Structures are given as C-alpha cells and as structure tokens.
Amino acid sequence: MSVAPMMDWTDRHCRFFHRLLSRRTRLYTEMVTTGALLHGDVPRHLDFDASEHPVALQLGGSEPADLARCAKLGVEWGYDEINLNCGCPSERVQRGAFGACLMAEPALVADCVKAMVDAVDVPVTVKHRIGIDKVESYAFVRDFVGTVAQAGCGVFMVHARNAWLKGLSPKENREVPPLRYEMVHRLKREFPDLVIGINGGITDDPTVHGQLEELDGVMIGREAYHHPWWLARWDELFYGEPASGLGREQVEEAMVAYMEREHAQRGTPGIPSPAT
Ligand SMILES: Cc1cc2nc3c(=O)[nH]c(=O)nc-3n(C[C@H](O)[C@H](O)[C@H](O)COP(=O)(O)O)c2cc1C
After folding, report:
1. Residue 212, SS3?
2. Nearest residue CA, atom 2 of ligand 1?
3. What is the pLDDT of residues 30-42, one digit of tens each?
4. Is 14 designated active site?
5. What is the pTM of this model?
6. What is the pLDDT of residues 174-200, one digit of tens each?
7. What are phi and psi of 57, to 5 degrees?
8. Separation of alpha carbons 89 and 72, rounded Å
C-alpha cells in the first residue's frame, strides 16, 4: 500500500499524520522539481521526520544529470526510494518538459532512470499514466515500461487513465479520462518480474483486495487525504499485521505534541520560534 504523491497535500506534516495511522504503508512526498532542489532551499524540500519511513521522494525533471544529482541528495537525506514523475499533465510541468509528456519519450526516461540508478543504491521507480492524449493502444504503455525497465527501473506505479495534455486542467485529468485497470493487469501479465502497482479512483477495501490479487501494490491518493482514518485499518487488512491500535484521541494527542515540537524547533512561518 502507498499514499500517492500529492502536491501541496502530502507534505511532511501530512505524512507524519498518515504514519501514525499505518506503520507499513509507503508514503510519497509531493513532487519536488530538480530546479527547486538544485537552486532552492534543500532542507525545506527534503527534511522529514524519522518516523515517516518508508518514504519515497518524488522528483520532477527530465535532465539525466540533474536528476542524478537530486536522487543522490534524496538518498543523503535518507529517502528509501526515488520516484520519477511521468504522470503530471499540468501546463507548468509541460513547459518544463517533464511529467506526463515524458511518456512520449521513453528513451529519454530510460536515460534519466539509468543516471539515477547509477547514482544511488535505493530503488528508482516511475509513476506514470497508461497513455497521453487520445493514444489508447496498449502497445504505447507496454513499450514505455519495457524501455524504462531495461534502464534499471523495477517498480512502476501506474495511474490507470490517460493524461490529456491539452484542454483539461490537472484536476479534470484526474477525473475525465476513463480508468482502465485492465491495461495495468495486462502489464503485470506481460512483465511478471516487475513490481507493478495501480493507482486511480480506488476508495474501498474490496477493490484493494481485488487489485492485490492481480498486482503487487495499490496506491491511494485523494481518499487517503479526505478520509485518512481508512489507513488505520490497512496494516491489519492488507499486511496481516496488528493495527497501530491508536484511537482517534491518541492520534490527535500525538499530532498536538508533534506540532508543539515542530513549533519549538522551527517556529511558525512569520512567528519567531520560542527557541530563537
Ligand atoms: C492535490 C493533488 C496533487 C497531486 N500532485 C501530484 C504530484 O505531485 N505527483 C504525482 O505524481 N501525482 C500527483 N497527483 C496525482 C495523484 O498522485 C494520483 O495519481 C491521483 O490523485 C489519482 O489517484 P486517486 O484517484 O487515488 O486520488 C496529485 C493529486 C492531487 C489530488
């Protein structure tokens, strides 16, 4: 199980909260662009609480050398996985020539993956769509996965709908293109040695159980954010392990203690911390 990368949502505080609810679920950061890391405030983008493990850093970029440097930075900061975003359709991301438009350039993605694999010793993974624009053919996503796998990526998280690069907002691109889970199942059948996870529109236990019969993992986005208490059952339901056992009030108390600790260490933006 994993919680999907979600810009402005799955920040470190959200991840700390999710970790209180499930010990096993893998948590993804928001997408961090190579530009933000190479020219910006690295601690602000990469710092996280030790309790968040296992935690994956999602990078956005399309320049192999830059991605390799950022992957290395991520591992130095302690991330357990480096994930490349090949699924985001926003215009800003398209202007940067990364995200979903990278699916049209599998050879470039392979170069990016190879550069990162050579730079780090944690898994380098890719999150992508099943196609872009009106390309509906299975061969498109099959060739993408095949090419990228050869470069050293063994894990693919597949958002099971196309990204329409023109005419839809990012929000519409999470709702309008139809979900086609069968495409992802077909990928797993064709590449049984790869770890294939599915994402998109999954909101209940029976669907997760059903997907886990076909696939290696399930990634949940919006439902984990809007109804986080669902996570409190995942360790038991999907890992066969005892749940954390924390009740809602205990989780709330832990969050309050976390906020006090954070405030003491870092302050609130615009308000000096007590320590300074
Ligand atoms: C607010 C928001 C921000 C998102 N940001 C990212 C992102 O930074 N990187 C990414 O790969 N996907 C991003 N996504 C897409 C999600 O990771 C996921 O693929 C999508 O929401 C479909 O899964 P769901 O139906 O379970 O929500 C975002 C989604 C939302 C709702």
Report:
1. helix
2. 6
3. 999 999 999 999 9
4. no
5. 0.96
6. 999 999 999 999 999 999 999 999 999
7. -95, 125
8. 26
